[in-house]
Design brief:
The strands form three sheets. Strands 5-6-1-7-8 form a five-stranded mixed β-sheet. It has a five-stranded antiparallel β-sheet with strand order 11-10-12-9-13. It has a three-stranded mixed β-sheet with strand order 3-2-4. It has about 400 residues and is an alpha+beta fold. Helix 11 crosses helix 12. The protein starts with a strand and ends in a 6-residue tail after the last strand. It is built from 16 helices and 13 strands. The protein folds into four domains: about 100 residues, 2-Layer Sandwich (Alpha-Beta Plaits), CATH 3.30.70; about 60 residues, 3-Layer(aba) Sandwich (MutS, DNA mismatch repair protein, domain I); about 50 residues, 5' to 3' exonuclease, C-terminal subdomain (DNA polymerase, domain 1, Orthogonal Bundle), CATH 1.10.150; about 150 residues, DNA polymerase, Y-family, little finger domain (Dna Ligase, domain 1, 2-Layer Sandwich), CATH 3.30.1490.100. It catalyses: DNA(n) + a 2'-deoxyribonucleoside 5'-triphosphate = DNA(n+1) + diphosphate. Keywords: Cytoplasm, DNA damage, DNA repair, DNA replication, DNA-binding, DNA-directed DNA polymerase, Magnesium, Metal-binding, Mutator protein, Nucleotidyltransferase, Transferase.
Length: about 400
């Protein structure tokens, strides 16, 4: 049995925990875009990501608070300590959720359901946060169960009852079914997971393509052989920042601060990377992703920033036309040991690498805000930094 533990409205819950005046009231976390909404705000139809103006129209009495990433990071670390105290087999998924394999702990800690009850109680007691846990025999179904059990709940799918629980659910509950795939299925009167299960694999493949067809056919029958893995390596390391609609049109300083954060994390993890990806979200909520691969892997701030700015410059006409509400940067194609290929003739450590190292040491000793770029003075950076990138 596998547990999927997911903190409820994480950012908003941290704000309500830290400010008693916000408890029981609709809370929105964000600037121009809603990064998180409390369940009191969600009851009015607020979702993420939604423009703040739209959210205010739906919930006029909502309280808007700016994001505090340092507080969310501290809360996440505490919750993951509780996860690690529960079982040695923990697979982080993001800053606020993880899979836990507890099946081998029956003799020392009780059944998976008993462990899930204690886990929720400990997170509430030690971290002061609500968490929902789904318990099932596969990772896929455990995640579906936690989603169905929200908010602040525990939902168990007993062995033998998996398909009875799964098949009445809408097709959107299947991993990989977004709006486009859902529309294709509904055009053919396929509305539930049970409908998908009754269609042959060959029909799904012809409808959706080879990979997607086989994937959805397996999930609809609750076939998910993946086990909880503790050795998961990041596929990429990234950060992003939501921008207000009235933001300064020059977003290069924001992009530079994001690159500072990403490359510092890369050096801490000893992971160099080759592919730089710029992520943009526009005022009409459309998105664009632009990537460029470097000739050699690097974790040097200046090299990655230079590439990121080039990608941004190449898309200025699109930004001017649609308006920009979010900018993000990620580095992928990461190596596992932080190795960087040396060039002939061999030289001492470049000055730029020495500067990166010196700045890292200052921030490690005196805090992340001890050094800031001059261009960021008077600016606020509130990025959403995932624990594990997508």
């Amino acid at each position: 049995m596998i547990l999927h533990a997911d903190l409820d409205s994480f950012y908003a819950s941290v704000e309500q925990r830290d400010d008693p005046a916000l408890r029981g009231r609709p809370v929105l976390v964000g600037g121009g875009v809603v990064l998180a909404a409390s369940y009191e705000a969600k009851a009015f139809g607020v979702t993420t990501p939604m423009s703040l103006s739209r959210a205010r129209a739906l919930c006029p009495h909502a309280i808007v608070v700016p994001p505090r990433m340092s507080a969310y990071t501290r809360a996440s670390r505490l919750v993951f300590e509780i996860f690690d105290d529960t079982t040695p087999i923990v697979e982080p998924i993001s800053i606020d959720e993880a899979f836990l394999d507890v099946d081998g702990l029956r003799k020392i800690r009780g059944t998976p359901v008993q462990i899930a009850h204690r886990l929720r109680a400990e997170v509430r007691e030690r971290a002061g946060l609500p968490i929902t846990v789904g318990v099932a025999g596969t990772k896929f179904l455990a995640k579906v169960a936690s989603g169905a059990g929200k908010p602040d709940g525990l939902l168990v799918v007993p062995p033998g009852e998996e398909l009875a629980f799964l098949h009445p659910l809408p097709v959107e509950k299947l991993w990989g079914v977004g709006p486009v795939t859902a529309a294709k299925l509904r055009e053919r009167q396929i509305h539930t997971v049970g409908h998908v299960a009754r269609i042959g694999e060959a029909a799904l493949v012809s409808m959706l393509g080879g990979h997607a067809g086989r994937h959805l056919h397996a999930l609809a029958h609750n076939r998910d052989p993946r086990r909880v893995s503790t050795g998961h390596h990041r596929g990429s390391i990234g950060a992003q920042c939501a921008l207000g609609r009235s933001h300064d049109p020059n977003v290069v300083p924001i992009l530079a601060a994001l690159v500072d954060r990403v490359t510092r994390r890369m050096r801490r993890a000893r992971r160099s990377g080759r592919t730089v990806t710029l992520r943009l979200r526009f005022g009409d909520f459309t998105r664009a992703t632009r990537s460029r691969s470097l000739l050699k892997a690097t974790m040097q701030t200046e090299a990655i920033l230079r590439t990121a700015v080039e990608l941004l410059d190449e898309n200025q006409s699109l930004i001017a036309e649609r308006g920009l509400t979010l900018v993000g940067i990620a580095v992928s194609n990461l190596d596992g040991e932080g190795n960087v290929q040396m060039e002939l003739p061999f030289q001492d450590i470049p000055d730029k690498d020495r500067l990166d190292t010196a700045m890292d040491l200052v921030r490690e000793r005196f805090g992340a805000d001890a050094l800031r770029r001059g261009s960021m003075i008077g600016r606020d950076l509130s990025p959403s930094v995932p624990l594990l990138s997508d």
